[in-house]
Design a protein that fits this description.
single chain; mainly alpha; about 55% helix; about 0% strand; globular
Length: about 140
């Protein structure tokens, strides 16, 4: 008799196409006004579950997908995930994917655009870790 091991199925993380689709949902259903975004109705269920998994994934797991985004998609995705995080099941704290997205944009955006995005994020979240991440993580880097 052989002994088998059981490993829980890991939720699939979004790829670059998923992230672009999520950014497009943000643009199409609310843009900068998170009060009119009806995300539960607009995100297809499979994509919603992959985004939920991404909210707890290590930044390195999302790095390749984030690198494949253009600046506009990355900014829209950061806004979408900021708003999503207020919904049950999407809480991420310091592990929020908004942090690596913001770091990615830091190397690409001019200071004014980056400052504006940071202000928007802070104005629309109660997560004290976004957009910059935890101080402990920043000191390690």
């Amino acid at each position: 008799m052989a002994t088998e091991t059981w490993e829980p199925a890991s939720a699939a993380l979004p790829d670059v196409d998923d992230l672009k689709a999520a950014a497009a949902v943000w643009r199409a259903h609310g843009g900068d006004d998170p009060d009119v975004v009806v995300l539960d109705e607009q995100l297809e269920p499979a994509l919603r579950e992959r985004l939920r998994a991404a909210m707890q994934a290590p930044a390195a797991a999302l790095a390749e997908a984030i690198a494949g985004l253009d600046d506009a998609d990355a900014m829209d995705l950061a806004r979408l995930l900021t708003v999503l995080e207020a919904r049950p099941g999407f809480e991420a704290g310091a592990r929020s994917p908004v942090v690596p997205i913001f770091r990615h944009l830091k190397a690409r955006l001019d200071a004014d655009a980056l400052t504006e995005l940071a202000r928007w994020i802070r104005a629309h979240t109660e997560n004290r870790f976004i957009p910059h991440g935890s101080l402990r993580d920043r000191l390690r880097a």
